[in-house]
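User: Here's a structure from my thesis project, written as structure tokens. My advisor, Dr. K., wants to see whether a designed sequence matches the one we expressed. Can you design one independently, without my sequence as a hint?
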């Protein structure tokens, strides 16, 4: 009786060692037979009561070996199926070969342009300040001299959080000005890059989300001339040393006086023509001297301090730089589009 069971163990061991499967289905059948809940090995353990005492130890050892062999054979069969070949007998692996090169990713064109802008302003002492995209009404509007019912609120169609009149997706990075002014003391010299949102119809030229870089400089005796010099420096670093700029009078609730800055792109390329609506001038940013109301809203004495602020749109610069004629490409994340950019700045 005992000899019969020992024979059975031996033949199973042999069968396991010689196992071969050619597909996942066969592998699964094999697993069920040797390792499944009703596997063929399990009942053999109960046979121990029919084994004479002096052979029980050996019996136990042999059964355990059988079980372990089945487990390791299963691993081997599995990896040989996955690898298409038996990894334990792989002959073609040459460990002395140099490794294959890594495939570098690429950076999003908006990131490339944004980082370029950050780099330019860092060189003249601006620190980066980042803040939240979900803002409250006070930081986005009220502190920025745009109280309720102020007509300027209509300029920016706002996404409010569902059921809320208080929380919104920021419509501009100017909200970071209020965040910084209420928590830091002048001198303040920051730029705030980030994403902003407006409830606009999506087209080739405008989108409901885009990016801005906000700038804020507050100290004793800051003048309009300081602003102009700073922005001219920026334009030359960004668009080339011969770049022409112009400042047009404008209106923003948070600055007085306010202006918009254009850079001259010309009308030679199709993209320049389209982006400048045929005028040759690309509208790059809004700017102005910080309105005294904004300073006092944020706890800074307007009789002591003055400052300038600006807000730069990023997408249009990215489109100009990379010759992209439809803004939607910047938000669709099609890898065929994104692959064309570089990973380095
Ligand atoms: N927040 C304005 C916008 O979203 C841009 C802007 C204009 C920002 C003038 C400023 C500024 O800081 O001084 O259109």
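Assistant: Designed independently from the structure alone:
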């Amino acid at each position: 009786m005992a000899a019969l069971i020992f024979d059975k163990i031996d033949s199973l061991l042999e069968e396991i060692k010689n196992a071969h499967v050619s597909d996942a289905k066969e592998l699964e059948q094999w697993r069920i037979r040797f390792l499944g809940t009703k596997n063929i090995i399990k009942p053999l353990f109960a046979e121990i009561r029919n084994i004479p005492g002096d052979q029980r130890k050996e019996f136990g050892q042999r059964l355990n070996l059988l079980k372990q062999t089945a487990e390791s054979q299963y691993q081997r069969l599995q990896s040989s199926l996955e690898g298409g070949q038996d990894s334990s007998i792989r002959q073609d692996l040459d460990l002395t070969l140099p490794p294959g090169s890594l495939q570098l990713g690429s950076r999003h064109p908006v990131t490339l342009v944004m980082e370029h802008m950050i780099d330019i302003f860092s060189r003249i002492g601006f620190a980066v300040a980042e803040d939240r995209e979900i803002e409250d009404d006070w930081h986005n509007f009220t502190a920025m001299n745009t109280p309720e019912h102020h007509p300027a609120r209509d300029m920016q169609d706002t996404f409010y959080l569902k059921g809320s009149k208080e929380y919104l997706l920021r419509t501009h990075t100017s909200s970071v000005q209020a965040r910084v002014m209420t928590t830091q003391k002048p001198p303040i010299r920051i730029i705030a890059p980030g994403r902003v949102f407006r409830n606009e119809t999506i087209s080739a030229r405008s989108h409901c989300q885009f990016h801005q870089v906000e700038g804020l400089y507050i100290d004793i005796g800051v003048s309009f001339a300081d602003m102009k010099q700073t922005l001219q420096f920026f334009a030359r670093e960004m668009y080339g040393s011969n770049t022409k700029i112009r400042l047009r009078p404008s209106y923003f609730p948070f600055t007085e006086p306010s202006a918009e800055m254009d850079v001259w792109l010309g009308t030679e390329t199709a993209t320049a023509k389209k982006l400048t609506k045929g005028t040759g001038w690309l509208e790059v940013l809004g700017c102005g001297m910080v309105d005294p109301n904004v300073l006092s809203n944020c706890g800074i004495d307007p009789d002591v301090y003055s400052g300038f602020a600006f807000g730069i749109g990023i997408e249009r610069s990215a489109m100009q730089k990379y010759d992209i004629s439809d803004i939607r490409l910047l938000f669709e994340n099609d890898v065929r589009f994104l692959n064309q950019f570089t990973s380095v700045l």
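When you compare it with your expressed construct, this may help: The radius of gyration is 35 Å.
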